[in-house]
TrEMBL record:
This is DNA polymerase Y family protein. It comes from Pseudorhizobium halotolerans. Residues 180-276 form the DNA polymerase Y-family little finger domain. Pfam families: IMS_C. It comes from the Bacteria. InterPro entries: DNA/RNA_pol_sf, DNA_pol_Y-fam_little_finger, SulA_CellDiv_inhibitor. Keywords: DNA damage.
Length: 438
């Protein structure tokens, strides 16, 4: 599949380097095969890279949202061919468009002929003949069209419908470290592919060592004999130059490579490379060796798992006291205040419960949660938490009273009452369950 990105607010007379910078950004973030499409667009091959973003729809939505964060308005489309994606990104009003595989004909038949990327004089002459849409043009005999307008009209039609390949020449910059291998005879066996992947990784590691770099993201680009490309992307939590580790990440996903009629070229590119500092290994006789979990993090991350860990945040409101950070991110140095016990499982959102309790300060004696009635045997509290008025003015008087309660089955719950039990201005006095201990 091919994704095309149209910059709605692009200036046709602006420096083309601006679009190239955006293409390099897309190259680093989304796909190993990215090229500039005119002065207002970017085209990329999503084959092999879309699953890392959760599919084509999430891929192009992420691109459009990323550009919106940079103050740019864009429309994106995904289709089987470059021509179809180019046309849909410029002629539809939807912010994102995904054409299912094989449905290109249905999607583009009614589009106007100027989507074919033909010279304006040719478009004008076709309109004089009464041709307005792609469907009308494709229904005309090919020979008279070629005789009058040359082969370009037929070539653009064939590219639009996927009858003729339109390869994407990927954008490359001098600072990218890459190695390649051409094959006199096409290869296709998984064992053979794995063998040459290891060789390419070894060559890439040697080049990175010369520059004192380690790879954070690498792309393996597969060129097939039918002039199509596939790609595998391997991301790492920290800069790495270990050939065995990088080769394993790529070889573990060989089953995603479809060699077709054979592979004639393989290219391995270090898309993101960072300085790699050499560290002195610790002696087991002097100090305890710290186990490095980043290899496991890399394996799980490249299988599509979204890994994170939580870190404390300076806030008394429970749902604001944690945030997600990367699995290998540097410690923030913050810690939770050791006042009252906190549950090991905090619900994403507090769930309303039915209770029997004496106001204002007594814990509930009966709790009904998710249709199950529980009799409370023991309780501890209340722990009063005030709202953070400096973040939300509506929390100026907000109060929560938290209790740790234990039912007859021995399960401990973390519940709270919204309000102080006296003044309804401090809360609704409804009860909620916010966490579970153990």
């Amino acid at each position: 599949m091919v994704a095309n990105l149209h910059m709605v607010d692009a200036d046709p007379v602006a420096d083309a380097a601006a679009v190239e910078r955006l293409a390099l950004w897309a190259l680093r973030q989304y796909s190993p095969v990215v090229a500039v499409d005119g002065v207002d667009g970017i085209v990329m091959d999503t084959e092999g890279a879309d699953h890392l973003q959760g599919g084509e729809q999430l891929l192009i939505s992420g691109i459009v949202n990323g550009l919106r964060g940079r103050g740019l308005t864009a429309r994106a489309a995904v289709a089987d061919t470059w021509g179809a994606a180019h046309a849909l990104a410029r002629l539809t009003t939807a912010e994102t468009t995904v054409v299912p595989r094989g449905d290109v004909t249905k999607a583009i038949t009614g589009l106007p002929i100027h989507c074919l990327r033909l010279p304006p004089p040719v478009i004008q002459d076709l309109r004089v003949l009464g041709v307005e849409t792609v469907g009308e043009l494709s229904a005309l005999p090919r020979a008279p069209l070629t005789l009058r307008f040359g082969p370009e009209v037929g070539r653009r039609l064939d590219q639009l419908f996927g009858r003729v390949a339109e390869p994407i020449e990927p954008l490359r910059t001098p600072e990218l470290v890459e190695v390649a291998r051409n094959f006199q005879e096409p290869i296709g066996a998984a064992e053979t592919i794995a063998k040459y992947i290891r060789r390419l990784v070894a060559q890439l590691s040697a080049k990175l060592e010369e520059r004192g770099l380690g790879v954070r993201r690498s792309d393996l680009i597969i060129h097939r004999v039918d002039n199509t490309r596939q790609s595998l992307r391997a991301g790492l939590a920290k800069p790495v130059r270990d050939p065995t580790r990088l080769a394993k990440l790529l070889c573990d996903r060989i089953e995603k490579i479809d060699p077709g009629f054979g592979i004639e070229r393989m290219v391995l590119v270090a898309i993101i490379a960072e300085p790699l500092e050499e560290k002195q290994g610790a002696s087991a006789l002097v100090e305890e060796e710290v186990v490095d979990v980043t290899p496991l993090v890399d394996i799980l991350g490249n299988r599509g798992q979204r890994l994170y860990r939580v870190t404390p945040v300076a806030s008394d409101v429970p749902e604001r006291s944690v945030r997600r950070i990367g699995p290998t991110a540097v410690e923030t140095g913050a810690d939770w205040a050791a006042k009252w016990p906190r549950p090991s499982r905090l619900l994403a959102y507090p769930e309303e419960i039915e209770t029997m309790a004496v106001l204002p300060d007594q814990p509930p004696v009966v709790v009904t949660w998710r249709g199950k009635r529980r009799r409370i045997l023991r309780a501890d509290g209340p722990e009063r938490i005030f709202g953070e008025w400096w973040l939300r003015p509506c929390e100026m008087q907000a109060v929560r009273d938290y209790f740790v309660v234990e039912d007859e089955q021995g399960e401990r719950l973390w519940v709270f009452r919204a309000g102080d039990g006296v003044d309804t201005g401090t809360g609704s006095h409804r009860w909620f369950l916010h966490g579970i201990f153990g």
